[in-house]
Amino acid sequence: MKDLTARTTAAGSTARRRRVLGLAGLAATGLMALPGASQAAEEVVRSGHPTRRDIAILRFLAAAELVETDLWQQYAELAVGNPAYREALEAIDDDLPVYTVDITEDELSHAEFINAFLRSVGAEPVNLDPFRTIEPPRVQGLRPTRRLTNLTALTIDTSYYTRYQSMRNPDFGATFPQIATIRDQPAIPTADGLSDRILAGIARVAAFHFPSIEVAGTSLYDQFVPFVANRDVLRIVSSIYATEAIHYAIFRDSLTGVSAFRSGDGKLIVPDLTEGGHGSAHVMPKRCDFLDRRFPTCSVIRPSSQEKAGAQAVARGLTASNLFKGQSPAFFRALSSLARAADGGAA
């Protein structure tokens, strides 16, 4: 791990980070006027503590960060301890193994911080340890520890790729095509001794999964900002939100190293994104409609509505990706309960 971490200081890595970190400035800095906002604000003024909705938001975010930490830990363990998998990732982008280690540390810090804050205000932190029931593949580098998430049969929504290249916004009803077909595919090795070609396909699945997780997290945090009443909670949500946007930008940039691949069963079809193919060189989000079409278009995070990016929408999306394949009914009930509360009890 030390060797991988040290490589983050390389000139090429530094240049790449400087190109894509522009999204850091997207962090929100204030509240929008919404129905019920004044009542929530009065509750904060009276008590000096976060509102019930604030706590519910933080509890769902803590759960989301624990889920992220769990999946990133698997990627990082393999990037460090499985040379064949590491080489397959490096064939796409030399820095991908390093990024998996860095982001694991980021997501763990988010989960630990949010839970610590919850305890500090007398709220119950989130503990998902009882749901660590999924057995990971027995492969080199991956600890034989039960997990929350399953990375062996992912179905990935890759529409985020075309969404940010478009001047349309899903909050206004826009839909976007898939840039790749990824159905029921492993993003990590399922056995030792796999061929180079199989590992190449697995690495491509992982490369598309990386930004899909972070783009969902970016929209999730963004849409929560207008509903937060307490200033400290707002700082937590908006500050962590900025790092999620940075993560997405870095992994979206890494896709420029993906070359064409097709599996025999047609469940994995990836186009050539190298040398600007399929618009891969354009990584910055284009302008789109925002808030109201009467205003000029604006380059923003999208979606940012509760309907498209709220806690329940994110929970549904993660479930549809097969990330929780093999989880218990109790886990899905707990996730659903946290999501409903964070969305203010909305259906």
Automatic annotation (TrEMBL):
Annotated signal sequence range: 1-40
Keyword terms: Signal
Name this protein carries in UniProt: Ferritin-like domain-containing protein
